[in-house]
Specification:
Blueprint: H1 2-5, E1 20-25, E2 34-38, E3 51-56, E4 60-70, E5 84-85, H2 94-106, H3 111-118, E6 130-133, H4 148-160, E7 163-164, H5 165-172, H6 178-186, E8 190-193, E9 203-210, H7 212-216, H8 218-228, H9 232-244, H10 253-256, E10 258-259, H11 260-264, H12 271-280, E11 283-290, H13 308-321, E12 326-331, H14 337-350, E13 354-358, H15 362-376, E14 380-383, H16 389-401, E15 406-409, E16 421-427, H17 445-456, E17 459-464, H18 469-476, E18 481-485, E19 496-501, H19 502-507, E20 511-512, E21 515-516, H20 517-528, E22 532-536, E23 545-548, E24 565-567, E25 572-574, E26 581-583, E27 596-599, H21 603-613, E28 619-622, H22 632-642, E29 647-650, E30 663-668, H23 672-675, H24 682-694, E31 705-710, H25 716-722, H26 726-740, E32 746-755, H27 758-775, E33 781-785, E34 791-792, E35 795-805, H28 811-827, E36 835-840
Parallel strand pairs: 12-17, 12-18, 13-15, 13-16, 14-15, 16-17, 19-31, 22-29, 22-30, 28-29, 30-31
Antiparallel strand pairs: 1-2, 1-4, 3-4, 3-5, 6-7, 6-8, 9-10, 9-11, 20-21, 23-27, 24-25, 25-26, 32-35, 32-36, 33-35, 34-35
Helix pairs in contact: 2-3, 2-17, 13-14, 15-22, 24-25, 27-28
Catalytic activity: ATP + H2O = ADP + phosphate + H(+); Couples ATP hydrolysis with the unwinding of duplex DNA by translocating in the 3'-5' direction
Keywords: ATP-binding, DNA replication, DNA-binding, Helicase, Hydrolase, Isomerase, Metal-binding, Nucleotide-binding, Primosome, Zinc
EC number: 5.6.2.4
């Protein structure tokens, strides 16, 4: 025994306590990453790409993304500890982090601004984030064990509906309260949202089912039939239910029941009889939470067989993909590009890859998603800003888990966590909607998607009937591949395009308000044939401004150097730049006269006048004012597709890629305002708009007509539009841009200087331009100049444009120089409060 007691056991192996540090991306506009110390017990939990909770500053608590892990303590400050880890696995992938760093570098912004734009709010936590009970969580019924602190949070949420992180900290009187929030999220007891408008509410449908005892005992069901025989209306409802839910074949079908609106929406069934059956206990009514994403895709369909022309295009694209990473599909409107896209998506999925299908407008996703769902079913995810943050987080997690292999979305879709991308499709690639203006990052989704595809080794297909000059130039110089589709699908012909000289029409008194006699006659003829019409006016509201007929007073915005637009529906004057609005005055504030007149016209006035001129026509409007609600796009498009709407009036939303088989007439009401715009891209954009909106007419074999109203029909651009001559437009534009040194021969950077004092804005812009000119040259630095709208949101503006040679190899160094010069300018005491916005590749 003594020998045993004196035995020298070998020492325990020393635990290697490595001190690790994490560089994190905070969702703030900070120029550098911040470093935090990782607690030893979290060494295996903190991974690159996961979210961690940290304290930033004295009180602020934030979630952030881990960008790097190392053993180097920061030299300039003592690193605080990471407070908690939110994820078991990275929610930001390695390819994403590379892309985010490229965006920050290329578009001259911070990684924090990129992360803030990229992550849905439901994945961002801060001191002011809010908690709410998960809609499906029932505290009384749930048997998941809760800690005492978690019970306190649940009870408080039952009383208050929502709490901020700060309020939770005060409630628990604990410094490290985040672990309880994290635990409740993992137990699906609570969810997070950022603002009141983001608060998640589940989609609930009302359903009915047959009371259980009638299902389990056949005798009782037979007895029920006998009881209802004298009441034929109630018997009809029972028979209708059993027809749709055949419980005699499978009793379990009754558990799922039937959506109540299937019965209430049937005009042949009595509503009161349904209520009576529910009251008697024959039918049970219950609520069911359902996914907002479609799960019933109807009859799944195979992709439509490609025509010979489409199949040739597909084979050309696949052939070019063997040599080049990027290909442009230049197909005329109505040529069937979408069917080619679907075939290529199917090909990519068969190879095990992921696909991103980018569209420029939410309105387009509403129509295209229905077609894609029938082919790809629940492999398809949809992502755009009309979804709530929780819905967007659901798509984000669905991509990480592999649930969604195909994503259709607008520009923000480029931030999603793809990790096995094989194909990116950028439809209507020419659209300026792909450019983000405010806030930073001011990225172009087309260029960013190209970089994303490059980083993941994916192929990119650009599609357009009217490609951007830059894109076509890349094809003509051999950098990208080019495939052309010059014929419309099936028997459809290109529409006839007619010009109406509104100057002559006014002289001959043939104008009916803003409509020429020709256009009105054509609209009436289409309505008589039960065909549909699209009218395009590139300005929303009722009128651009109002004016006093006596003293010429025009109401101006209090915060911007613009007149207020008149919106008749709300009887208000509104600024389209800052959102300021006021009631429409009944008389002139300047002279007291009551002769206030609306000047010009927008989509609201077009809609109003059409309803007066054509009282039997159903007119609907699609613009920013009518599509603010979540599902308004889908409803407007569904009404038009079904024929409930005869005439659709809209802004640029109606020009982009929509496919309506019964539209035979398109009217462009005021073409001149689009052409005569102070921008080097004005003619290119005008051509694209005219051709795109014209392409909505004459599909599915119905011959179409386009009427363009203009005061100057001799403009050369109309000849190109009538002949569908893109090549003539391209050759003219590329020659002009080479001559005057514009893209694609240079890269442009626009710098906007803003200050609440006009003189300070001007002086600072002069100083900045001089410093930049000293570093570059007079030819490369243009300005400063006062923009057309020189004041927005109480800030006076000055603009400087910089042209950098595309092939100089000095783009990165020039950007660093520009950033340093701006930083030094903002440090000068004379320019305190100065704001400087840098926009790389302005649209």
């Amino acid at each position: 025994m003594s020998e045993l007691l004196n035995f020298n056991f070998p020492p325990e192996p020393a635990v290697d306590r490595v001190t690790l540090f994490a560089d994190v991306i905070l969702p703030l506009p900070l120029p550098k990453l911040y470093t935090y110390r990782i607690p030893f017990e979290m060494n295996d939990e903190v991974l690159v790409g996961v979210r961690v909770i940290v304290q930033f500053g004295a009180k602020k608590v934030l979630s952030c993304i881990v960008a790097d892990i190392h053993e180097n303590a920061p030299a300039d400050y003592q690193a605080k500890y990471v407070l908690d880890v939110l994820d078991d696995k990275p929610i930001v992938t390695a390819p994403q982090l590379k892309l985010f760093k490229w965006i920050a570098d290329y578009y001259m912004c911070t990684l924090g601004e990129v992360i803030n734009a990229a992550l849905p709010s439901a994945l961002k936590l801060s001191s002011e984030s809010r908690l709410q009970l998960h809609p499906s969580y029932e505290p009384e019924e749930d048997d998941i064990p809760l800690a005492t602190q978690e019970v306190k949070i649940i009870y408080a949420l039952q009383q208050n509906q929502a709490l901020t992180f700060t309020e939770v900290g005060n409630l628990l009187q604990l410094k490290n309260y985040h672990k309880y929030i994290k635990s409740l999220i993992q137990k699906e007891a609570i969810i997070i949202f950022e603002q009141v408008s983001d608060k998640y509410s589940p989609k609930v449908v009302k359903k009915v089912r047959l009371s259980e005892h009638f299902v389990q005992e056949e005798a009782m069901l037979e007895e029920l039939f006998a009881q209802l025989t004298p009441k034929p209306k109630q018997l009809d409802i029972l028979l209708n239910y059993l027809q749709k839910v055949p419980v005699h074949q499978d009793k379990n079908l009754n558990i799922r029941g039937l959506e109540k609106n299937v019965l209430t929406g049937n005009p042949h069934l009595s509503q009161s009889a349904i209520t009576s059956l529910i009251r008697k206990g024959v039918l049970e009514q219950f609520d069911q939470i359902v996914s907002r994403f479609p799960t019933d895709f109807g009859a799944m369909q195979m992709p439509m067989a490609l025509s010979e022309h489409q199949a040739e295009a597909r084979e050309e694209i696949l052939g070019l993909f063997k040599q080049k990473d990027t290909v442009l599909l230049h197909g005329v409107t109505g040529s069937g590009k979408t069917e080619v896209y679907i075939d290529l998506i199917k090909h990519a999925l068969e190879g095990g890859g992921q696909v991103l299908y980018l569209l420029p407008e939410i309105a387009l996703t509403a129509q295209i998603v229905t077609r894609l769902m029938k082919v790809f079913g629940d492999q398809l995810g949809v992502y755009h800003s009309k979804f709530s943050d929780n819905e967007r987080a659901e798509v984000w997690q669905g991509i990480l888990s592999g649930k969604f292999q195909v994503v259709v979305g607008v520009r923000s879709s480029i931030f999603l966590p793809f990790h096995n991308l094989s194909l990116v499709i950028i439809d209507e690639e020419h659209e300026p909607s792909y450019k983000q203006y405010d806030p930073a990052p001011r990225y172009n989704a087309r260029e960013t998607a190209l970089m994303m595809a490059h980083l993941q080794g994916a192929k990119t297909l650009l599609g357009s009937a009217t490609p951007s000059v830059e894109t076509y130039h890349n094809c003509k110089t051999g950098r990208w591949g080019l495939v052309s589709m010059t014929k419309r699908f099936g028997a459809a012909q290109m529409p006839d395009i007619e010009l109406v000289n509104t100057r002559d029409e006014q002289k001959r008194k043939k104008m009916h308000s803003h409509f020429s006699a020709k256009l009105i006659n054509e609209i009436e003829a289409r309505l008589h044939r039960q065909e549909q019409v699209i009218l395009f006016q590139n300005r929303r509201g009722y009128a651009p401004f109002i004016a006093c007929d006596e003293c010429s007073w025009i109401p101006k915005c209090k915060h911007c150097a613009v007149s207020l637009s008149y919106h008749k529906y709300n009887q208000e004057l509104r600024c389209h730049y800052c959102g300021y609005h006021e009631r429409m005055p009944s008389d002139c504030p300047a002279c007291g006269a009551t002769t206030l007149k609306s000047m010009g016209f927008g989509t609201e006035k077009v809609e109003d006048e059409l309803k007066l001129m054509l009282p039997n026509a159903e007119v609907q409007r699609m613009d920013l004012d009518t599509t603010k609600k979540k599902n308004s796009y889908q409803q407007i498009i569904a009404d038009f597709e079904s024929g409930r709407t005869n005439i659709l009036v809209g802004t640029q939303m109606v020009t982009k890629g929509l496919d309506f088989e019964n539209v035979s007439l398109v009217g462009i009401l005021n073409a001149d305002t689009i052409i005569n715009f102070p921008d080097f891209r004005a003619h290119e954009r005008a051509y694209q708009l005219f051709v795109q909106v014209s392409g909505r007419a004459g599909r599915k074999g119905k011959h179409g007509t386009v009427i363009i109203q203009t005061r100057d029909p001799l403009q050369s651009i109309f000849r190109k539009v009538r002949n569908n001559d893109y090549l003539a437009l391209y050759e003219h534009e590329i020659e002009e841009r080479m001559r005057f040194n514009f893209p694609p021969f240079v890269r442009m950077i626009k710098i906007t200087v803003k200050h609440e004092d006009e003189r300070t804005a001007e002086n600072s812009a002069i100083v900045l331009a001089k410093e930049l000119t000293d570093q570059l040259s007079k030819e490369q630095v243009l300005g400063p100049e006062v923009p057309y709208i020189f004041k927005i949101r109480n800030l006076f503006l000055q603009e400087i444009h910089i042209k950098l040679p595309r092939q100089s190899g000095q783009l990165s160094s020039s950007k660093r120089m520009i950033a340093d010069t701006i930083h030094q300018l903002k440090l000068l005491p004379d320019f305190k409060g100065l704001r400087v916005v840098v926009d790389v590749d302005p649209a």
